[in-house]
Structure formats: C-alpha cells, structure tokens
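User: I'm writing a tutorial on reading structure tokens. Could you give me a worked example: one chain, its sequence, then its tokens, then a sentence or two explaining what the tokens reveal?
Assistant: Sure. Here is the example chain.
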Amino acid sequence: MPRKFGLIWGIRGNIAGTFLNSQYLYRFTFLFLVLVIIMLIACSSEGGTPVTNDELQATIAGPAGQPNSSPSAETSGSVQSPYQGQETRKIKALSQDDIDGLLNGSGTPFGGIAKPAELNGYPGPRHVLDAVASGEFQVTPEQLAQIESLYDGMQSEAIELGQTIIGAEESIDTAFSSGTITEESLKDKIALSAKLYGQLRIVHLKTHLSMIDILNLEQVAHYNVLRGYSSGGDPCAEVPPGDHDAALWKKHNNCP
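And here are its predicted structure tokens:
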C-alpha cells in the first residue's frame, strides 16, 4: 500500500478509536434516542392544517351566527353554568314567566313576591276570588265587593310598577351588552331596580295583610286548607306544615 494511503487510513483509525472510546459516543447515542422519540410523538399526533380562529368561531356558532345547540356543543365539568341557554333572553335577568307576571300584576315573578304573607296564613285576594268562582269558598256580598276592590287596586299598582321594573332591567342589560356600563351608572341602575322591586313587594304583601281584616277566622282556616297548607279543623290546634312561624300563625288566626 502506498505510503500516502497508509497514512490516511491510520488517521481514520485513530479518529474512530478516539470516538468509540470516549464520551462522544454516549452523547451521540443520547441525542439519537431523543430524536427518535420526538419523531414517534409527531407521527402519533393527528395531522392536518391547524385550525384558525375564524374556523373555531364558525364551529362554536351555528347557522347565521346562532349558538350551536347540538349535543357536541354541550359543555361539561365543574365550570358548566346553570344559566346555560339563558344567554338568548331579551332581558337576561328576567325569564318569560317573570315578564308575563310583571305585566299582569301577579305575584309569581322572582319566585313568588307574596310568599312571606301567603305561607304564614295571610290569604291572597286573587286566590280567594278564584275559589269563590269555583264554588269552593263562601263569602258575603259585602266581603266579595271588598275583595274585588282590593284586588283591582293592587293589580293596577302592580302592573304599573311591573312595567317600570322591566324597563329598568332592560336598561341594565343593555348597558352591559353595549359595554357602556360604569361603576357609577351601575350603582344608579341597581338602586332604581331594587327600589322598584321593594315597592312591588309592598303592594302585594299589604294586600294580603288587608285580607285578614275582611275574612273571619273560619274563612282563613278554610283558605289554607284549600291551598294545601293545613289539614283542616281548628287552626289553633296545630301549625300547618311549611314555612310557618308558630307565633305568627296563632296571632293571625286569633288563637289564645
């Protein structure tokens, strides 16, 4: 072998020996394994073009930009909102039943405006009139005239306040949806809404209070039986089940 080739071969041998017998071999092996792992992970991932923000929004929204209501769009987990679906309301804080009740002057909005009176033995005029009409409740002509007048006055006040409350809640909702709400305007709007709500409760509750002066003891007891609040008999014998305060129940029914 010519001397030149022998020299080259010797140099290659020395380099290979140095590489194999040094720490470089371990480093090369480690880097090679890391590269293999990365390639395996990349191959196991789903391929395709990354989803753009516009495509993501199109997935969330249904036709014509409406929220997707398909089962695949349902959320789950600890952060799922109990208000899901209510974001489509015209006035977010009011259900349709609330709005209907406010416009009709009834006591049904907000879970029952007159509950403190109704569930403590104070009859409601509307329910008494309905029971009279069905033949389940007896009143004198004078009592009937008083109850009708009481109810008509209450309903007139309640409807006016109800319409104003709807307007106040719509103003709050619009301020948030438009992004124009400020802390100062928020205080004013909520204060107005709370004031109106308080006035509406007074209108309903004072009407129940007035019914005690129109009906006698037996009629009040019969009313509560019809409403399912007691089992009949002597109203002083036992307090009916429900959210009744014993002392107030006996007081309202003229019990000793």
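What the tokens reveal: The chain has two domains: 3-44, 89-252. The chain is about 60% helix and 0% strand.
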